[in-house]
Specification:
Length: 145
């Protein structure tokens, strides 16, 4: 049942974040990412990672497998999640990506936000950028929210 629980947590986190930030994004973030110098990928607890970007997270989930919080910084909001295992992180990501969004992926941590936010965070935390399913590319699909 872990996979189902993880997917539910991922879906709830991403759905909540998309409601906060909208589904927006643009190609300008990709150009900025290409020009940006990326530091080595950060490691640490949820609080240590949040401190790197000068945020005090509002903890939403505090479980053995996952810790998750919402961070608000001057440029906007994002979700930061840390994981006990690499497998747990990958299962969470696989479930979350169905909801769209942009993801900054590090060693047992993920930051979720709009493309501009995760590109900005990458300049501070390192990591790899990943994209979820696109809302716009599904012909007849309309986003309601």
């Amino acid at each position: 049942m872990r996979l189902t629980r993880g997917k539910l947590l991922a879906g709830a986190a991403v759905a909540a974040l998309l409601a906060l930030t909208g589904c927006g994004g643009g190609s300008d973030g990709k150009a900025a990412a290409a020009k940006q110098t990326v530091p080595p990928t950060a490691t640490g607890s949820l609080e240590e990672l949040a401190a790197e970007v000068k945020c005090k997270p509002s903890i939403q989930t505090d479980a053995d497998e996952i810790r998750q919080g919402v961070c608000k910084i001057s440029t906007g909001k994002f979700i930061l999640a840390t994981f006990a295992t690499d497998r747990g992180q990958r299962e969470w990501l696989d479930g979350a990506k169905d909801y769209g969004g942009s993801y900054l992926v590090g060693a047992k941590w993920v930051a979720v936000g709009d493309q501009k936010m995760v590109t900005t965070l990458r300049g501070q935390l390192g990591g790899t950028l990943e994209e979820g399913a696109s809302h716009a590319s599904h012909g007849g699909h309309q986003h309601s929210g």
